[in-house]
Amino acid sequence: MPVTHLTDEEIQEYLDGNLSHQSRVFTEAHLETCEFCQAALKQYQSLYVGLNQDQGFDLPRTFAKSVVAKLPLAQKTKSGFNYSDILLGILAILITAFTSLYYLDLGSLGKRLTHIPLPQFEFVSWLFDATKSLVAALQANLSLLVVGILVLIVTGALDRILFKPLVRGRDHA
Amino acid sequence: MADSKRLVRKILAGNTRAFESLIEEQKRLVSHIVFRMVSNEADREEICQDVFMKVYQNLRGFQFESKLSTWIARIAYNTCINYLEKKKIPLFDDCSWEEKTLDSFPAQGVLPDEYAEKNDVSRRLQTEIDKMPIHFRMILTLYHLDNLSYNQITEIMQMPQGTVKSYLFRARKLLKQRLMAKYQPEDLCL
Question: Do the domain assignments include residue A157?
Answer without folding.
Answer: yes
